[in-house]
Design brief:
5 helices, alpha+beta
């Protein structure tokens, strides 16, 4: 886990030091949850977004992790991430047909608070249900 985090932070530090408005950056991060426990993962996400907050860096994260989705949603609710510039996409390739849907801060929050899984298109009986607490969103709206 530590080696994975170090590789990301080293690359991000170099990228953040070289970008400007005329030369924006792009960070592609696949499966950030690999080799990370949830606490370390959320801290790493916080550092990532903090290091890029005032930089012209677009971040694309591919994940299957509800922890990543929930943490990004919480940061959106708290206005730590710019909700106008942040979207979550769900894609599903079945029988040669790619289906996709997108979520903004509000509809992602509603899905998670209702206990729905934004990773799947169809009704699917998951063995474990995740539900974002509604009070988290309500308290962040009063900020």
């Amino acid at each position: 886990g530590a080696r994975h985090a170090f590789k990301l932070l080293a690359a991000l530090t170099a990228l953040a030091a070289t970008v400007d408005d005329e030369h924006p950056g792009l960070l592609l991060w696949e499966e950030p949850e690999l080799c990370q426990n949830p606490t370390t993962l959320t801290r790493l996400l916080d550092v990532l977004f903090d290091m890029t907050k005032d930089k012209p860096i677009q971040i694309c994260i591919a994940t299957h992790s509800l922890e990543v989705i929930a943490h990004v949603t919480r940061l959106l609710q708290q206005n730590t991430l710019p909700h106008n510039d942040t979207l979550a996409f769900r894609m599903n390739l079945r029988e040669g047909v790619l289906r996709s849907a997108w979520f903004d801060r509000d509809n992602l929050s509603v899905w998670l608070e209702a206990g729905h899984d934004p990773r799947v298109l169809e009704d699917f009986d998951l063995p474990l249900q995740f539900q974002l607490r509604e009070d988290t969103y309500e308290s962040s709206r009063n900020i």
